Amino acid sequence: MLNREKGTTLVEVMIAIAVLLLIAISCSRLARIVIYSGVSSENRAIAYSLAANVIEILKNKKETNLLDNDPETDLSTDLTLDYLFSQLQNYGFDKVEKEGDKIKVKIGNTEFTIVLNLETPKETLLPAEMLEFINKVKITIKWREKTGEKFFVTRGYLTNWRIR
Predict the structure, then answer these.
(1) Number of domains forming the structure of the chain
(2) Which of 35, 56, 98, 127 is surrounded by the most beta carbons within 10 Å?
(3) Can you give the pLDDT at residue 164?
């Protein structure tokens, strides 16, 4: 009579290998998700920072216009995409390009697209004669990740008060 208790059978070894393989596959997927999540968070933080830089450029231009006190300068015409492009070139990004109504900025391995919309608000609680002193700003930052295109939008108002 054979004693079957001494060793492991081929079926037991195959089941053990299958269980270890499932654990290894699960761990590799989890590691990939963690790495991707880190890259995605980094891109989102860069987009927020890029939007903050654009806002700072716009505010600095507005304040320069106010200090100049030149009645010919107008915030809505001075804050063009060309002006923003010229200022972003001084920030030391890997690459800055202007394509039509967009500015493309390459930071690391990711290319971010900046779209700037500047307009006079149509609906507001302020009197109509004050609307000429306000600009509605919308900044959209877009970038591409493995899961598709991502974007960040910020909106705000810039006032253009002048000493008269």
Answers:
(1) 1
(2) 98
(3) 47
Do residues 134 and 158 make contact, with C-beta atoms less than 8 angstroms apart?
Answer: yes
Calculate mean pLDDT across residues 25-41. Answer: 84
Handedness of CA 78, 80, 84, 85 (dihedral sign): negative
Phi, psi of 9 (to 5 degrees): -90, 165
Domain residues for 124? 10-159
Residue 30 lies in a domain: yes
Each residue's pLDDT tens digit, 124-148: 676 766 666 677 889 999 999 888 8
In the sheet that holds 110-119, the strands lie side by side as: 95-99, 102-107, 110-119, 134-145, 148-159
pLDDT bucket at 79, cuts 50 / 70 / 90: low
In a domain, 24, yes or no: yes
Q: What is the pTM of this model?
A: 0.69
Give the CB-side neighbour count of residue 41, counting CA atoms within 13 A.
6
Q: In angstroms, rounded to a whole number, what is the distance separating the alpha carbons of residues 141 and 50?
A: 8
Q: What angle do CA 11, 17, 20 make, to 5 degrees?
A: 145
